[in-house]
Amino acid sequence: MEYAAFRPENAPWVESDRLIEFKDQKGFSSVIEVKTTDLSISGRRAEDPWDDRIEDGGRLRPLPASEQSVLLESLAALRNTEMTLVHLFALLTGARIQTVLTMRAKHVARKPGDFHGDDIRLACGPGTGIDTKGAVKGVLHLPRAFYERLYIYVHSDRARKRRQLADGGDHCDQPLFLSHRGAPLYENRASRGPVSTGTQVRRHVKTGQAVRQFIRDELLPMMRMHLGNPRYEFSFHDLRATFGLNMVDAMTAKETKYMRALDQLRQLMWHVRLSTTERYLAYRENRKLFDAVQDGWGTHLSTLVTRTLDTAVAV
């Protein structure tokens, strides 16, 4: 590299040749050669205060009250016990998919009467058998009424038959949620081996594909029909953000002080950075300009959850 008799000791960039294919007006393909460098110009992405998504380990979209209603009504109509419980677990606790699907039968085997209070706390992370993102330790808060449903499910013939089909048979360390063939829906870190060992070759690691397929093939089509929107989209991870906003609304209704609400939400969602939690509170404040929080939604959600469980969960 030399310009105007200037030859730098270290090249400020590296040039290379690239071929670019294009089509002319008649549809014929041609190729031109261009020079390119390894330089890149990065710009800070401006934050949109009216964005309907929250950055929390991905761009998540909290479901508004109307969409939560359609979600629960659709789950009730589809009558898939395991998928209903899996979705409600995330909606009511904010747990990520790997945490929900690596729950063990033993984690909900204790009688609800052995616990005190309105919520039942469950330790997650290393040493518990429940996977968490980044192997962090945290505590889930399960509403008592939902824990009671999980307790009924784990002791049901339906769940027992699935455990009997699983490798190792019916025992308390089996995943709480199994396929109808007894296969885990998510393989935790401890059970993952190499992709291939000797003559046995594993096709893929289970990371919740069955849940995503259920959403794509069954849940989304029904929700689109109810919403009258053929392009409607939502992902399982959006349930985490929905839980966070539901908690913000509940604390707002109780007139919880900002710093207290911030700390409570950070603990519930296991945020390492306080700035992530602040996004949830800022999101709600911004969205108030577009749609006010519906009065009594928390109570209405509980009613819908109970109705969904009564209709869709067969034990």
TrEMBL record:
Keywords: DNA recombination. InterPro entries: DNA_brk_join_enz, Integrase-like_cat_sf. Gene3D superfamilies: Intergrase catalytic core. This is Integrase. It comes from Paraburkholderia tagetis. The keyword Glycosyltransferase does not apply. The keyword Lyase does not apply. One of its GO terms (biological process) is DNA recombination. One of its GO terms (molecular function) is DNA binding.
